[in-house]
Amino acid sequence: MKTRDLTSGNLLREIIEFAVPVWLGLLFQQLYNLADTVIVGRLLGVNALAGVGSTTGLTFLALSISTGLGNGFAVSVSQRFGAGDEAGVKRCFGNAVTLSLLIAAVLTAVTVLAADPVLMVTETPEEIYGYAHDYVVVIFSGLVCTVCYNLFAAALRAAGDSRTPVIALIVASVINVVLDIMMIGTLKMGVSGAALATVISQLLSAFFLLLCIEKRGGALRITFEQLRLSKGISGEQMKTALPVTLQGAVIAFGILIVQTSINSMGTIYVAGCTAGNKLYGIMAAPIEAVCQSMIPVSGQNYGAKKYDRIDEGLRTVLIIGWILTGILGMIAWLFGPAMMRLFVDNAAGEVIAYGHQFMLFYVLGYGFLTIQMSMCFSLQGSGFAGMTVVSGVLETAGRIFGAVILARVFGFVGVCLALPLAWIFTSLYLIPTYLRCRKKMRIDGSGMVKTDVMKHKSLGEVSA
Fold it and tell me: Residues 115, 117, 122, 124: what is their CA dihedral angle, to the nearest 10 degrees?
């Protein structure tokens, strides 16, 4: 397993080499849901497409929790890796695996039980309610697979290996498409089959990553002894994971508010936004990949006490993000309608028009998304994850303002403005917040999150 030391060398080259595999991974991860959406829309019709799309807020909640846990727990791995503490890396990773499994079991039970009430509260149209319910219950039932994949992938990236997760996703994405066609087209399982195909693919991705970690050895290879929970390590990991997860949960609440507004407009709008959202996710993948590089860059350099490299990495990521915004904006403007036809035929003109408009507003706001994500990841990797919770609240406020206030004045355009406004709100908060935290780094010079665990020279000395 190849790891990457980001505490030295040319940062632009290191960030690009790190981000390209991550981008491919995110792209193939998006293909999970894209395959579901395209095949559902083509084989089962607009109502089924809208039903799957109406669960966006709920499925985002599941994804944000699993991603938040993975990225949050991986911060401790990244910092120990940067400090050259291999024993600490093993203890942190082993503790994260056990903690993730316990949390995933609880979350699965809670989300499955809450799915039906939430669909009713968000005013899911009657004609698509059954599709929405069948899809989201299966997705939530497989939440443990999503959590495990994201943890293993985040831990590998924290150690500088961004390639192995991509290989897992490429294989699993192909399997997902095959299963989608078989379960929907051949076995006639409907939207439940699409959801089951996604869960099975995520399970295979997680299993593949685990096998790679065990086979190749290295700092992440652990024993059963290291799977035991440590109070000190658990406290440190929850300190970084909870704010990230809470941030995602707050944002998911905002998405549910926006989805409620879209649901109230009718099935055509829901179908258009569903297709637009899927394309937005694919086009945002390179932005997110570049921004994700700030987790190991900030984590490793924070552990190595090379704080100036964190600033250098952040500047590099911001420049790349704004350049990508211009390129992707032109692509969305010129080729958006053609891309929308992947989901519906030419006869569904309104769905194509609404979906293109929805996607275009989002893509043109990617520059502010770059500011938000890169600074959030920088703060999380540097041990200031708690500071990012407010950004989640502000993003939710922006979404609600667009969906509730602007939608009443400008109709569907107001809904389209919700997310770009949310990114602007959070950027205005995160810029001064990052500068304050950066100043604190220089004053403290501590190099890592201060917890009782860090009183020991090595996590290997901490008793389980």
Answer: 80
